Structure formats: structure tokens, C-alpha cells
Amino acid sequence: MTNELIITTYRCPVEAIEPCDEFKHCNALLNWFDNHCVELHSSGIIELSKETLVKLSCDLNALSAANCTEVFPTIRNFVHGFDAYDETYWQQVYQLRQWCIVQLAEVDFTTQRLFLQAAW
User: Fold this and answer.
1) Strands 18-24, 112-119: parallel, antiparallel or unpaired by DSSP?
2) Which of 39, 48, 54, 91 has its CB surrounded by the most CB atoms within 10 Å?
3) Mean pLDDT along residues 16-32
4) Nearest CA to 115 among 27, 30, 49, 34?
5) 44 Cβ neighbours under 8 A, 6+ residues apart
6) In whole angstroms, what is the distance from residue 38 CA to residue 46 CA?
């Protein structure tokens, strides 16, 4: 088990699974999934639907300094990940926006499945 928050995503056709990305220390993403989908537990794997990805993408695209604490809040005092709304937070938001764009463009949700696993 690791001592840091790592969120890994996997893409696969039904017969194979392969990692496609990792987001380290992004407790705002963990918090988003806890509040919009299902509470994530360490090592638990959830399937991401196209609708979930679209909702995440919309929320990320709507973010501003004025609304980030409501739309994509961090988990205050969570021992894994960053909870400040600083440059690191906005870099993670940018990376997640780009990731959503790629996944929505490349994943064929009729023949592939997308999963997420959080570990800490």
C-alpha cells in the first residue's frame, strides 16, 4: 500500500485492461467522485460512464477562482494530496480537463470500458 493518494484510470476492451493515466495528490478529484458518483475507497475500482466524464468535464470547464470551492473543492486537512487553491490546484485542473477531452474523443464506450481506482 502506498502512503500517497494516487488515482489511476484504466481503459479496456472487455477482454483486456491497461492503465491509461495517473493523477497524484488530486484530492479535489477524489472529493468530486465522492460527491457525484460513489464514495471511493482505497484500491476500489469504479467504472466511469461517458455521462460521468461529460459531467466532470463540464464542471472543470466551468471552474473559476470565484466558484472553485463549490464546484471542485479540495478535502481540507486530508493527509494525502493538496488542499490549497494554488498553482498546483490549477495545474491539476488543466491536466484533468485535457484528460477528459482525450478520453471523450478516444474511448468508444460501446466497445471499451473506462475505470478509476484510488489508492492511498
Assistant:
1) unpaired
2) 48
3) 86
4) 49
5) 117, 118
6) 8
Check if the beta carbon of residue 8 is closer than 8 Å to that of residue 21: yes
Q: Is residue 29 part of a domain?
A: yes
Question: For residue 81, is it within any domain?
Answer: yes
Quote helix, strand, coil % in the chain, to nearest 5. Answer: 40, 20, 40
Give the whole-angstrom CA distance, residue 104 versus residue 93.
16
Q: What is the rounded distance in angstroms from the CA atom of residue 39 to the CA atom of residue 44?
A: 10
If we measure between CA atoms, which residue out of 75, 63, 74 comes closest to residue 100? Answer: 63
**pLDDT at position 107:** 92
Q: Indicate the pTM of the whole model.
A: 0.84
- Is residue 21 situated within a structural domain? yes
